[in-house]
Specification:
Elements (H helix, E strand, L loop, with lengths): L1 E6 L3 H9 L7 E5 L5 H6 L1 H18 L15 H25 L3 E4 L1 E6 L2 E5 L5 E11 L3 E3 L12 E2 L1 H4 L8 E5 L3 H12 L3 E6 L10 H14 L2 E4 L7 E2 L4 E5 L2 E5 L1 E4 L3 E3 L13 E2 L2 E2 L13 E3 L11 H17 L12 E3 L4 E6 L2 H6 L4 E7 L4 H6 L5 E7 L4 E8 L2 H13 L4 H5 L10 H10 L6
Parallel strand pairs: 1-2, 1-6, 2-3, 6-19, 8-15, 9-10, 9-15, 10-11
Antiparallel strand pairs: 4-5, 5-6, 7-16, 12-13, 13-14, 17-18, 20-21, 21-24, 22-23, 23-24
Helix pairs in contact: 1-8, 3-4, 3-6
């Protein structure tokens, strides 16, 4: 009998397996594909590898602005795809080796629950293995959601899964959904020369994001030539052999392919949750967030399948740590979900942590907000990236509640604000620290000083 049986080898599953080493626990990790999950195989890592290639290409195209003369650069799609593949392979192999070093037994097959601490592993050759464990962690992850009428065929209608393996650059794409995934693909594809249309039923990019950051991203998208159709629902597609026509309102466009990016759905429907009486809501599993325990004794859930928590790899890591800590020690390692950084890897990046102004007000806070634009930051001017901003949301005469950064390096800079918000710092506390000059992060220091009531520039 194992101490832990884990179903799913993505960020939540493999993090739990690795962390269990700290407590000397025996672990069986069940994975039907390869370890790494969506993040490593079909999401975070491969997508950001392509985005990086696109950003390098865009930078080289503008090299003359910096006094660097080059020949006309060409984007070699197959080379970018090959580079992406090598990055993924290296990380997958490294992860598999690390799991082996930590003594984790990896079983390849589809895992399902059989009650009483039992998991049945169905192997590809038709055989099966039953294992027993003192505790079970469910970490089966998510898959791309779709919409009626847009059946995925891998060519004219795709999800992010298929788009990451396009053999050649599409000439034109309609992206349905302007959340993080949709906007990241729009930014990348426009950078490398694809005609991009992006549709969103709500009236802004990345719904829920601070309007000041939306303005930064919208301006960048317009400069890239991206056609934004906001507050626009799409009708039933008209299919052709090598194109798709999409109606919206009184208009219609014809593109080579449509990329459906309307979110992700939990993969819990076929693991036999009913065998142990786990409570679910539309496929998401309800947990005690202090421990990650489900309604079934000794059964935990982490990652994208957890009800009400962000579908992010770093959240899955934290939930895995919380689950393993509890099952190993009985103690809690509760997660501060309000201090989780979020990043949209567009060009420029958008990142935020804590409450937006609208959410803070809805939560009953009387708030003050302060903003500092990148156009006054020396390093941003040097880099030619002045179209960004930092926004601070604070309780009136109280603690920091949230922050948003839009601009170069936003995904890295947000962690400074993560600590300030996680520690419930006052603006005056955070503003007392000095930022190096010239740096992009000076914008954070300036915004914090303004929030503390003593602005500099």
């Amino acid at each position: 009998m194992y101490d832990i049986a884990i179903i799913g080898g993505g960020p939540g599953g493999y993090a739990a397996a690795l962390y269990a080493h700290n407590f000397g626990l025996s672990v069986a990790l069940v994975e039907k594909d390869r370890v790494g999950g969506t993040c490593l195989l079909r999401g975070c890592i491969p997508a950001k590898a392509l985005i990086e290639s696109g950003e390098v290409f865009a930078t080289v195209k503008s090299a003359a602005d910096f006094g660097v003369t080059t020949s006309d650069p060409q984007f070699e799609w197959p080379v970018a795809i090959e580079r992406k593949g090598k990055i993924v392979e290296g990380l997958v192999n490294g992860l598999a080796g690390m799991l082996k070093t930590r003594g984790v037994e990896t079983l390849n097959g589809f895992g399902s629950l059989a009650g009483d601490g039992k998991v049945v592993v169905a192997h590809e050759d038709g055989s099966s293995t039953e294992i027993e464990a003192r505790a079970i962690i469910i970490a089966t992850g998510s898959s791309p959601a779709t919409i009626p009428g847009y059946e995925i065929n891998g060519s004219t209608i795709v999800t992010s899964d298929e788009a990451l393996d396009w053999e050649s650059r599409p000439e034109s794409v309609a992206i349905i959904g302007a959340g993080a995934i949709g906007c990241e693909f729009a930014s990348f594809l426009a950078d490398v020369g694809t005609e991009v249309h992006i549709f969103e039923v709500q009236d802004q990019l990345v719904p829920g994001m601070e309007p000041e950051a939306v303005t930064v991203l919208s301006r960048a998208f317009r400069r890239k030539g991206i056609k934004m159709h906001l507050g626009a629902g799409v009708g039933q597609p008209e299919m052709a052999a090598d194109s798709v026509t999409i109606p919206f309102g009184d208009e219609r466009i014809t593109v080579q392919t449509a990329l459906v990016a309307v979110g992700r759905r939990p993969m819990t429907g076929s693991i036999n949750l009913e065998a142990i009486g786990v409570t679910t809501d539309n496929g998401y599993i309800a947990v005690d967030r202090a421990t990650m325990l489900t309604s079934a004794p000794g059964v935990y859930a982490v990652g994208d399948i957890v009800a009400g928590t962000p579908q992010l790899a770093h959240v899955a890591f934290a939930e895995a740590i919380a689950a393993v800590t509890h099952l190993a020690t009985g103690e809690t390692a509760a997660i501060d979900y309000n201090a989780i950084p979020m990043v949209v890897y567009t060009h420029p990046e958008i990142a935020w942590v804590g409450r937006t102004e609208a959410v803070a007000e809805a939560d009953g806070f009387v708030v003050t907000t302060h903003e500092h634009a990148m156009r006054g930051i020396g390093r941003a001017i040097i880099q030619g990236q002045t179209g960004g901003t930092v926004k601070i949301v604070a309780e009136q005469d109280g603690k920091l509640l949230g922050a948003t950064v839009a601009g170069p390096g936003a995904g890295e800079m947000i962690h400074e604000l993560m600590y300030a918000i996680g520690f419930e710092a006052l603006p005056s506390d955070a503003a007392a620290f000095i930022h190096a000059h010239p740096t992009i992060s000076e914008a954070i220091g300036e915004a914090l000083m303004a929030s503390a009531g003593r602005s500099l520039h």
